[in-house]
Amino acid sequence: MAPEILRNEPSDEKADVYSFGVVLYELVTCSEPWTSLNPMQVVGAVGFAGQRLALPPGLDSQVAGIINSCWASKPADRPSFAQLLERLRAFKELPACPHPPAAAAADGSSGGLAAVAAAARSSSGGGAGGSGGGAGGVARQGSALAAAGSSGVQQQEQPLIML
Predict the structure, then answer these.
(1) Would you say 100 and 114 are in contact if contact means Cβ atoms under 8 Å apart?
(2) Less crowded by CB within 10 Å, the N or C end of the chain?
Protein backbone atom coordinates (compact mmCIF):
# COMPACT_ATOMS: atom_id res chain seq x y z
CA MET A 1 0.00 0.00 0.00
CA ALA A 2 1.08 3.53 -0.70
CA PRO A 3 2.26 5.64 2.25
CA GLU A 4 -0.63 8.09 1.86
CA ILE A 5 -3.14 5.26 2.25
CA LEU A 6 -1.38 4.00 5.36
CA ARG A 7 -1.66 7.52 6.79
CA ASN A 8 -5.38 7.68 5.85
CA GLU A 9 -4.78 10.64 3.54
CA PRO A 10 -6.67 11.31 0.30
CA SER A 11 -5.44 9.15 -2.55
CA ASP A 12 -5.93 8.60 -6.25
CA GLU A 13 -4.57 6.30 -8.96
CA LYS A 14 -1.03 7.26 -7.96
CA ALA A 15 -1.47 5.00 -4.91
CA ASP A 16 -1.97 2.14 -7.37
CA VAL A 17 1.23 3.17 -9.16
CA TYR A 18 3.07 2.82 -5.84
CA SER A 19 1.63 -0.67 -5.41
CA PHE A 20 2.57 -1.55 -8.99
CA GLY A 21 6.17 -0.69 -8.06
CA VAL A 22 5.96 -3.23 -5.24
CA VAL A 23 4.62 -5.84 -7.67
CA LEU A 24 7.58 -5.16 -9.97
CA TYR A 25 9.87 -5.53 -6.95
CA GLU A 26 8.31 -8.93 -6.26
CA LEU A 27 8.80 -9.96 -9.89
CA VAL A 28 12.44 -8.84 -9.86
CA THR A 29 13.29 -10.57 -6.61
CA CYS A 30 10.80 -13.45 -6.68
CA SER A 31 10.28 -12.79 -3.01
CA GLU A 32 7.72 -11.40 -0.61
CA PRO A 33 8.60 -7.93 0.69
CA TRP A 34 9.12 -6.95 4.31
CA THR A 35 9.21 -10.53 5.63
CA SER A 36 11.23 -9.52 8.69
CA LEU A 37 8.53 -7.09 9.87
CA ASN A 38 5.04 -7.62 11.22
CA PRO A 39 2.18 -5.70 9.55
CA MET A 40 2.21 -2.84 12.06
CA GLN A 41 5.96 -2.41 11.64
CA VAL A 42 5.48 -2.23 7.87
CA VAL A 43 2.84 0.49 8.31
CA GLY A 44 5.27 2.46 10.46
CA ALA A 45 8.24 1.92 8.17
CA VAL A 46 6.47 2.74 4.90
CA GLY A 47 3.77 5.14 6.02
CA PHE A 48 5.60 7.19 8.59
CA ALA A 49 9.37 6.59 8.38
CA GLY A 50 9.60 6.81 4.57
CA GLN A 51 11.43 3.50 4.22
CA ARG A 52 11.51 1.71 0.88
CA LEU A 53 12.54 -1.80 -0.08
CA ALA A 54 16.18 -2.31 -1.05
CA LEU A 55 16.61 -3.19 -4.70
CA PRO A 56 18.96 -6.07 -5.49
CA PRO A 57 22.53 -5.17 -6.46
CA GLY A 58 23.16 -5.39 -10.18
CA LEU A 59 19.52 -4.73 -11.11
CA ASP A 60 19.21 -3.13 -14.56
CA SER A 61 19.28 0.63 -13.98
CA GLN A 62 16.19 1.22 -16.13
CA VAL A 63 14.17 -1.34 -14.16
CA ALA A 64 15.42 0.18 -10.90
CA GLY A 65 14.45 3.61 -12.19
CA ILE A 66 10.93 2.46 -12.99
CA ILE A 67 10.47 0.90 -9.55
CA ASN A 68 11.93 3.91 -7.73
CA SER A 69 9.74 6.32 -9.72
CA CYS A 70 6.68 4.33 -8.61
CA TRP A 71 7.83 4.72 -5.01
CA ALA A 72 8.22 8.51 -5.08
CA SER A 73 7.21 9.97 -1.72
CA LYS A 74 4.88 12.55 -3.27
CA PRO A 75 2.10 10.97 -5.34
CA ALA A 76 2.33 13.81 -7.88
CA ASP A 77 5.94 12.77 -8.58
CA ARG A 78 4.93 9.21 -9.54
CA PRO A 79 4.43 8.37 -13.21
CA SER A 80 1.05 7.62 -14.73
CA PHE A 81 0.27 4.10 -15.89
CA ALA A 82 0.47 5.36 -19.48
CA GLN A 83 4.02 6.59 -18.79
CA LEU A 84 4.92 3.29 -17.14
CA LEU A 85 3.57 1.36 -20.11
CA GLU A 86 5.70 3.39 -22.50
CA ARG A 87 8.80 2.77 -20.38
CA LEU A 88 8.09 -0.97 -20.21
CA ARG A 89 7.52 -1.19 -23.98
CA ALA A 90 11.12 -0.11 -24.50
CA PHE A 91 12.35 -3.46 -23.23
CA LYS A 92 12.87 -6.28 -25.69
CA GLU A 93 13.05 -8.47 -22.63
CA LEU A 94 13.44 -7.87 -18.95
CA PRO A 95 15.91 -9.63 -16.68
CA ALA A 96 14.91 -13.07 -15.51
CA CYS A 97 14.07 -13.71 -11.91
CA PRO A 98 17.30 -14.82 -10.19
CA HIS A 99 15.55 -17.84 -8.68
CA PRO A 100 12.45 -18.61 -10.79
CA PRO A 101 9.58 -20.24 -8.92
CA ALA A 102 9.07 -23.95 -9.60
CA ALA A 103 6.13 -23.28 -11.95
CA ALA A 104 8.24 -20.96 -14.09
CA ALA A 105 11.15 -23.38 -14.22
CA ALA A 106 8.82 -26.23 -15.18
CA ASP A 107 7.38 -24.41 -18.20
CA GLY A 108 10.71 -22.94 -19.28
CA SER A 109 9.81 -19.30 -18.65
CA SER A 110 12.28 -16.99 -17.00
CA GLY A 111 10.02 -15.49 -14.39
CA GLY A 112 7.42 -12.79 -13.99
CA LEU A 113 9.23 -9.84 -15.57
CA ALA A 114 9.18 -11.58 -18.94
CA ALA A 115 5.38 -11.62 -18.76
CA VAL A 116 5.31 -7.91 -17.91
CA ALA A 117 7.56 -7.05 -20.87
CA ALA A 118 5.49 -9.18 -23.24
CA ALA A 119 2.26 -7.62 -22.00
CA ALA A 120 3.61 -4.09 -22.39
CA ARG A 121 4.78 -4.79 -25.94
CA SER A 122 1.51 -6.42 -26.97
CA SER A 123 -0.73 -3.74 -25.44
CA SER A 124 -2.20 -1.33 -27.95
CA GLY A 125 -2.03 1.53 -25.44
CA GLY A 126 -5.42 2.74 -26.65
CA GLY A 127 -8.31 3.60 -24.44
CA ALA A 128 -10.06 6.88 -23.90
CA GLY A 129 -8.77 9.25 -26.54
CA GLY A 130 -5.91 6.90 -27.44
CA SER A 131 -3.91 8.08 -24.46
CA GLY A 132 -3.45 4.69 -22.88
CA GLY A 133 -5.84 5.55 -20.09
CA GLY A 134 -9.42 4.61 -19.43
CA ALA A 135 -11.07 1.29 -18.76
CA GLY A 136 -10.52 0.02 -22.30
CA GLY A 137 -6.76 0.40 -22.01
CA VAL A 138 -6.74 -1.26 -18.61
CA ALA A 139 -8.82 -4.18 -19.88
CA ARG A 140 -6.50 -4.69 -22.84
CA GLN A 141 -3.45 -4.49 -20.59
CA GLY A 142 -4.99 -7.00 -18.20
CA SER A 143 -5.81 -9.32 -21.10
CA ALA A 144 -2.27 -8.99 -22.38
CA LEU A 145 -0.89 -9.90 -18.97
CA ALA A 146 -3.20 -12.91 -18.79
CA ALA A 147 -2.18 -13.96 -22.30
CA ALA A 148 1.48 -13.59 -21.38
CA GLY A 149 0.96 -16.03 -18.52
CA SER A 150 1.41 -15.75 -14.80
CA SER A 151 3.96 -18.51 -14.36
CA GLY A 152 6.39 -16.09 -12.74
CA VAL A 153 4.08 -15.38 -9.83
CA GLN A 154 4.36 -17.72 -6.90
CA GLN A 155 1.18 -19.08 -5.42
CA GLN A 156 1.20 -18.38 -1.70
CA GLU A 157 -0.66 -20.38 0.90
CA GLN A 158 -0.74 -17.35 3.19
CA PRO A 159 -2.05 -13.93 2.16
CA LEU A 160 0.62 -11.41 1.18
CA ILE A 161 0.83 -7.90 2.52
CA MET A 162 1.07 -5.75 -0.58
CA LEU A 163 2.66 -2.41 0.22
Answers:
(1) no
(2) N
CB 119 within 8 A of CB 126: no
Query: Is residue 68 assigned to a domain?
Result: yes
Q: What is the mean pLDDT of residues 14-40?
A: 95
Burial of 38 (0-12, 13-18, 19+ CB in 10 A): exposed
In terms of Cβ atoms closer than 10 Å to its own Cβ (0-12, 13-18, 19+), residue 121 is middle
Alpha helical stretches, state H, the chain: 3-6, 13-29, 39-42, 61-70, 81-89, 102-107, 112-122, 134-148
d(CA 81, CA 22): 14
Residue 40 lies in a domain: yes
How far is residue 131's CA from residue 96's CA, in Å, rounded to a whole number?
Answer: 30
CATH code for the domain in which residue 66 is found:
1.10.510.10
Q: Is residue 53 part of a domain?
A: yes
Query: Which residue range is the domain that position 13 belongs to?
Result: 3-90
pTM: 0.65
